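RECORD TYPE: inverse folding
INPUT: structure tokens
STRUCTURE:
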């Protein structure tokens, strides 16, 4: 088993709530040399999420509207009452209770299959970083795990995983 990890740095903006990471994640998979395995994409933040969905502008507007409807930024949140709250405070902190509540409805990571060195996504599926707070620099961890092809000294060619372990599949015939 082989692993590879890369931290992606993404600069988000207040108006870009769904940032397509698919191409960047596929590049990490290709650079890893892993042919068969999984890739896990994980945000390092509590006010951002990772989601798999369709990159269709009207749908993305609908998704944003749904999240805002669930936890609007105009509602009062105890997390934003800096006169009362004393835990996990940072200098210059902005009120963002709504973003934390929206994040609770989403996932912090997604795990996808890799076959023949490609992420196995459906026809319309894309990997998104979902920004739920005002824009800033975000970090997304991409961990690739699996089997890489083997080069034999005699042939100096790549041997696919299935060919290396054919005996494990012979009983299926």
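DESIGNED SEQUENCE:
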């Amino acid at each position: 088993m082989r692993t590879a990890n890369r931290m992606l740095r993404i600069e988000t903006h207040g108006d870009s709530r769904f940032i397509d990471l698919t191409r960047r994640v596929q590049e990490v998979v290709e650079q890893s040399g892993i042919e068969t395995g999984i890739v896990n994409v994980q945000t390092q933040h509590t006010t951002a999420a990772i989601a798999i969905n369709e990159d269709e502008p009207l749908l993305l507007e609908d998704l944003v509207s749904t999240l805002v409807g669930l936890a609007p930024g105009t509602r009062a949140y105890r997390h934003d009452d800096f006169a009362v709250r004393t835990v996990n405070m940072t200098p210059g902190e902005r009120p963002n209770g709504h973003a934390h509540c929206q994040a609770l409805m989403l996932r912090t990571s997604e795990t996808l299959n890799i076959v023949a060195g490609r992420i196995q996504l459906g026809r319309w599926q894309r990997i998104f970083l979902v920004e739920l707070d005002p824009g800033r620099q975000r970090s997304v961890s991409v961990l690739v795990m699996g089997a890489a092809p083997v080069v034999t000294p005699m042939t100096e060619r790549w041997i696919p995983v299935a060919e290396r372990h054919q005996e494990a599949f012979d009983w299926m015939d």
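NOTES: The radius of gyration is 21 Å.
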